[in-house]
Structure formats: C-alpha cells, structure tokens
Write a structure and sequence with these properties.
The structure holds two protein chains of two kinds. Chain A is built from twelve helices and no strands. Chain A is mostly helical. In chain A, helix 6 packs across helix 7. At the A-B interface, helix 1, helix 5, helix 6, helix 7 and helix 9 of A face helix 5, helix 9, helix 10 and helix 11 of B.
C-alpha cells in the first residue's frame, strides 16, 4: 500500500507542474499586455508598470518567481481589483463556494445512490424506466438552463424561495443553488449506481447466495452493496470537477459572491492574474482530491494496489 | 476498404431501435428548420424594432416566438442559435475526432511502453477541469470564434482516444494487418491506411456522444458571455439573454432552453442507442 501511495503522490506532482506551466504560458502568450487600455500610455509609464509587476524580466525568471510565490500561497496581485491580492480574493470567496459544493455533493451522493438502487432492484419496470428517463434528462439539460427555470418556477411564480443570494438568508437561500448544482450529479450517480448494481447482481457469487436461500434485501445489504459502490468512488473525481464548473454558473445565476463569480468577472474584465490564479487553484484542488480518491480506492480495493 | 461499409452493420442493427429512429428524425428536422426557416421568415436576426419589443409569440407579422428586449424576432434568432450551436459542435467534434483517432491508434498499434506512457497521460488529463483552461484561453485571445472550435475539440478527444486504442488492440491481431506488414507497408501506412478506416463506424457512433458534450461547452461559454458575440448568437447566449428578462418575458428563456434541451437529449439518446449496436456489453 505504501508503494502504491507513494507512486500516486509522486505521479501527481508532474501533472501539477505541467498544469501550472501551461496556464502560465497561455497567459503570457497573450497578444498585448494586461494593461492595454483605450488610453495610450507614455512608454516610460508603461515600462514603470511592467517593472512594478516584474513583467520586464525574461519569461523563465517570471515563471520561477511565480512558482516560488505559489509555494508560499502567494498568487500575485490582481490587475483589476487594486489593493487586493489574488489569494485574498479567493480566500474571501472560498467559504461560500465550499459550503455550496459540499452540500451539493452530499445531496448528489445520497439521492443518486437511492435512485440508482431503486431502479436496479426493479430492473425494466416502470419505476426503472422513469428513473433512467429522468436521469438522462438530468445529464442532458445543463445547469444554466435548470437554474433559471427553477428561479422562474419557485421564486418568481410560486414565491416559495428567494430568487437571489441577497434576497434571503439561512437555509432558504441555499436550497435552489444546491439543488441546481446537485441535479446533474444526481443523474450521473443514479445511472452509475444502477449499471454497477445490475452488474453485481448478475454475478456468480450473488447467484450462489440466492441458491442458499438468502433474501434479496440481505444479499443487497451484505454482499452486493459494497462492490457495487466501487465504480462510484472513481466517479468522484469528475464529479468534483463538475460541481466546480457548475458552481460558476450557479453563482452567476443566483448572484452568490463565491470564487466562481470572481472567475467570471475576472474573465470578462480580462484580469489575467485573477483568472490564472483561480485556474491554478481549481486545478490543484481537483488534482489533490483525485489523489485522495485514488488512495481511498487503493485502501478499499486490494486488486488496485498490486497493479 | 470503404469507409461506409463499416457503417452498414451499425445501421442494420439500430434500424429497429425506436429511440434511434425517432431521435435522428427529430435532429434532422431541427437541422432542416434551422437552415430553411431564416430564408422563409421576413425578419432578420439582427433587425431591431424598438416599438415592438417583448412581443408575445404571435402568428401575425410572423413573430412566431415573439420578440426580445430589442424587438428582434426570437424565431429567427433561435434558428440562428441552433445553427451556430450545431455548427460549432460538429466542427469541434471533428477536431476531437482527429486528435483522438490519431492518438489512440498510435498508442494501440505501437503498444508497449509508448502505449503505457500515452495512456497514463490521458488518465492524468482526465482529472483536469479543462473548461477552466478554455476560459483562460478565451480571456487571453479575445473571444476568437475559430478558437472556440479548437479549444472545445482539444478537450473532448480523451474518450475518443481510449475507445480507438481499445479497438486498435483487437484490430491489429487480424490477418489483414499481418498481410500488410508482410508486404512491407510502413507502420504509419498500416495505422492510417489499414487500421483507422476500419474504425470509422465505431468512431461515428462515439462522435454522436461527443457532439452533445461540445454543445454543452459552447453554450456554457456563450452563457457566461465568453463565447459567440452579439449580434451573432447561439442557444447558450439566447438562454443568457432570456435569464435577464425572464420575469417580464419568460418565453425568451423558455424557448431557447427547450430547444437546447431537446437537441442535447436527442443526441444523448441517439448516441446511447447507437453504442448499444457496436458494444452490446455496454447495455445493461
């Protein structure tokens, strides 16, 4: 297990470096500087600005300066939000995004598994067809369509829940964003659970258990559930990336002051350092969480370790 | 070896699949309407008419889907959005197909360490939230239309590479590959002249699953205001416009949203149905 863990951890480092280098190069390959404005600046002033942000150094030197900063958690200054560093902006916005993401993931796992199991246990019945149909719809219809429709129905017409973050407080303002964010993941998890449970239930050892006269409920609980959940674990990586992407939309639709909203603002304002910082932050987060998932998988499934 | 011959068994197997037939019918109909509609309608997609803004859908004056905040005809704009969205998605899928097929076929045919390293790289790339890199690219290179195709194509090739590699592994065991090698065809020649043409059918099937993914990315970018720019439009941009006016004119949100959802659903069902024909194991 130790060998497996070390291999995984050292495998993640080159990926991380590659990601940082790629993102950094992309920004620095930009035609025109970050301070190009309608107003033409005197060359001396431009040179001064470039010096203040270390943009006059050769590219490799800038890159290593950036890397050194990253290690200390310093993502540089924001080009548009003066007086704020990118790390400050992310730090202030992060708690809301994390709260939203964790709630959505929990909801997705619970509801997805429940729906998937229900469908698998009554395979080819009407319940099964309805669940798979809804799941396909959930996968097909993007968050940015579902979220506004939910606002229209539950906030504008029925007036049950606030339409935006500032219009409510406590749980009421969390319900719509969390559900909108969780829906596609519920759909994916339900489909995965259904397929994997059906696979496990048709395996030989389940047939043996049946032949011994065990009830379906106890076969599912004691024999089938655990192996059927394994594929779900490997879906957690993409799910996390999906929730992060979705939260950009959800924060935009509901006006939630999270990292995603800063990301969109930064992108529309061409705030290079902010966008670069958030891309690197998100990529690092996803790579780290994937590493955790990989290690968990290794602990739960001994076959993986020996590969 | 005719490319089309590899499609025949797939068509034969899925001809009786009702979902496949219905969905391909709907998609063809949508494509036809999107192409012909604007020619028939008296309105232009960029033609503003401030005296008739926020009009409800009406048959008089041919505002079949009503008008938006600037008085532009939503029918024509929705059709344009469909056209742009489908166009972007198909081009992007062709890009991803090109990269994925070449990458997967090389990894699968060469095998050994090359294969191991190439597929490890695919695994590593799988974990990345690519959409954020695409947005970064959009920020840096000013919303360039061509770039959208390339960027979306560049993120969607991973699945294709995996599938093509798997297919290549089984194809390279066959006699005709041995025969080609025996008469001295180069490795490159075998991969691109003998292996890839045989993959055509499978690749087309998986492309129907790549297209909805590309549509999602494009409409996501347009929704955020980073994709297609006004007065051009795509379904994502139309949904975005609908959101800002939804309390006053909900149809501006509902119509493009339904159009987008319908296209995505049809492609997903079609892809699923076709995949059952090439890969019966996948069916549960």
């Amino acid at each position: 297990m130790l060998r497996y863990a070390l291999l995984r951890i050292f495998g993640a480092i080159p990926t991380l470096l590659l990601v940082i280098a790629l993102a950094f190069l992309m920004v620095h390959a930009a035609p025109g500087g970050p301070f190009d404005a309608e107003r033409v600046l005197a060359p001396e002033i431009e040179a001064n600005i470039a010096r203040a942000y270390n943009l006059d150094e050769p590219l490799p030197q800038q890159f290593f300066r950036y890397l050194k900063g990253l290690v200390r958690g310093d993502l540089g200054p924001s080009y548009r939000y003066r007086d704020y560093s990118v790390a400050d902006l992310i730090g202030n916005a992060l708690p809301v995004t994390v709260q939203l993401g964790l709630l959505a993931m929990s909801l997705a796992v619970v509801a997805g598994i429940a729906a998937g199991l229900t469908a698998a246990l009554s395979k080819n019945s009407y319940t099964d067809r309805i669940v798979t149909g809804i799941a396909m719809t959930g996968i097909s219809v993007p968050v940015f369509v579902v979220a506004p429709l939910m606002v229209l129905i539950f906030a504008v017409y029925l007036n049950w829940l606030p339409a935006s973050w500032t219009g409510g407080s406590g749980i009421s303002r969390l319900v719509l964003p969390v559900v909108a964010l969780a829906l596609p993941q519920i759909a994916y998890i339900a489909r995965l659970t259904r397929a994997s449970m059906i696979g496990v239930l048709s395996s030989d050892y389940v047939r043996t258990a049946r032949a011994q006269g065990l009830k379906t409920s106890s076969i599912v609980r004691h024999h089938a559930l655990k192996p059927a959940m394994l594929p779900l674990l490997s879906y957690m990586g993409p799910a996390i990336a999906g929730v992060l992407t979705g939260s950009v939309v959800v924060e935009e639709v509901f006006g939630i002051p999270g990292v995603g909203q800063f990301f969109v603002r930064g992108a529309l304002n061409r705030d290079y350092t902010l966008v670069l910082g958030i891309v690197i932050f998100y990529a690092t987060l996803v790579i780290l969480l994937n590493l955790v998932v990989d290690l968990l998988y290794g602990i739960l499934d001994p076959r993986i370790r020996s590969r | 070896m005719s490319y089309l011959a590899t499609l025949k068994p797939i068509i034969r197997k899925s001809r009786d699949n009702k979902t496949v037939v219905v969905c391909s019918g709907i998609l063809l109909l949508i494509a036809a309407i999107a192409l012909i509609g604007p020619l028939v309608s008296p309105h232009h997609y960029a033609g503003t008419d401030f005296e008739h803004s926020f009009m409800l859908p009406t048959a008089s004056d041919w505002h079949l889907f009503g008008t938006d905040d600037l008085g532009r005809d939503l029918f024509v704009r929705t059709l344009l959005g469909m056209k742009v969205t489908l166009f972007v998605a198909i081009i992007a899928s062709v890009v991803s197909l090109g990269i994925g097929v070449a990458y997967g076929a090389i990894a699968g045919y060469v095998g050994g360490n090359v294969d191991a390293i190439m597929m490890r790289a695919v695994d590593a790339l799988y974990a990345l939230p690519f959409i954020f890199f695409v947005i970064l690219l959009m920020v840096v290179f000013e919303r360039n239309f061509l770039l959208i195709f390339v960027a979306i194509g560049a993120i969607n090739w991973l699945d294709m590479a995996r599938i093509v590699r798997g297919q290549t592994l089984s194809l390279k065991q066959q006699e005709f590959v041995d025969a080609a090698r025996l008469i001295g065809v180069s490795t490159r020649g075998i991969i691109f002249r003998h292996i890839t043409p045989n993959l055509f059918g499978v690749v087309v099937v998986y492309m129907t699953l790549t297209i909805p993914q590309a549509i999602l990315v494009e409409s996501f970018l347009s929704f955020l205001g980073l994709g297609v720019q006004e007065p051009q439009t795509s379904l994502g941009a139309l949904v975005n416009g609908g959101v800002s006016n939804m309390e006053r004119a909900p149809w501006l949100l509902l119509i493009p949203a339904i159009a987008l959802a319908l296209i995505l659903l049809c492609f997903n069902f079609l892809g699923d149905g076709l995949r059952d024909a090439v890969d019966p194991k996948h069916k549960t």
